[in-house]
Amino acid sequence: KSEVECLVKLFDTLVARASSDYAGTGFDRTMFRDTLHSAFGMTDDVVLDRVFSIFDRDNDGSITVVEWVEGLGVLLRGTLEEKMKLCFTIYDLNGDGYISKEEMFQMLKNSLLIQPADEEPDEGVKDLVEIALKKMASTYLFVPFLLQDHDHDGKLSFTDFEKTVRDENLLLEAFGPCLPDIK
């Protein structure tokens, strides 16, 4: 109860600070992104936009207090199952229930920090996607390698994602950080 009250107070503070059309009822994408960035150090624009879309359940472009509390409830205190669903939904950019090669490419492209100077970055990411799908690597040096396409259909279903994450929880954020760290 005290955590929910704190989230409501934070929401009210953010809404009071918001200078948008939604001030008074909620806050917009910019305020949401700024808040997640300052509170949790989340910086990936694609991930932040996806998290906003998931929080904004009624698709009105504004986060209400209910959406805020329920969304942060999963983000901060969710069960493994809830967090798996959240992360999978973030990575499933087109909402078709699968993480395709193209979606893996977009997420990996955004999450890679260091790219070789002598190679076209996109080509390196394409190679990583192929390796991830073919599960050819047997090392933990780069976690997306370990995601397994259990049904061998060339894309990851939630079932594929869930099976792999249950074996290794670190793979929950295989295509980029979309959950706050434990701190």
From TrEMBL:
<dbReference type="GO" id="GO:0005509">
    <property type="term" value="F:calcium ion binding"/>
</dbReference>
<protein>
    <submittedName>
        <fullName>EFCB1 protein</fullName>
    </submittedName>
</protein>
<feature type="domain" description="EF-hand">
    <location>
        <begin position="43"/>
        <end position="78"/>
    </location>
</feature>
<dbReference type="Pfam" id="PF13499">
    <property type="entry name" value="EF-hand_7"/>
</dbReference>
<dbReference type="Pfam" id="PF13202">
    <property type="entry name" value="EF-hand_5"/>
</dbReference>
<dbReference type="InterPro" id="IPR011992">
    <property type="entry name" value="EF-hand-dom_pair"/>
</dbReference>
<keyword id="KW-0479">Metal-binding</keyword>
<dbReference type="InterPro" id="IPR002048">
    <property type="entry name" value="EF_hand_dom"/>
</dbReference>
<keyword id="KW-0106">Calcium</keyword>
<dbReference type="InterPro" id="IPR028846">
    <property type="entry name" value="Recoverin"/>
</dbReference>
<keyword id="KW-0677">Repeat</keyword>
<feature type="domain" description="EF-hand">
    <location>
        <begin position="79"/>
        <end position="114"/>
    </location>
</feature>
<dbReference type="InterPro" id="IPR018247">
    <property type="entry name" value="EF_Hand_1_Ca_BS"/>
</dbReference>
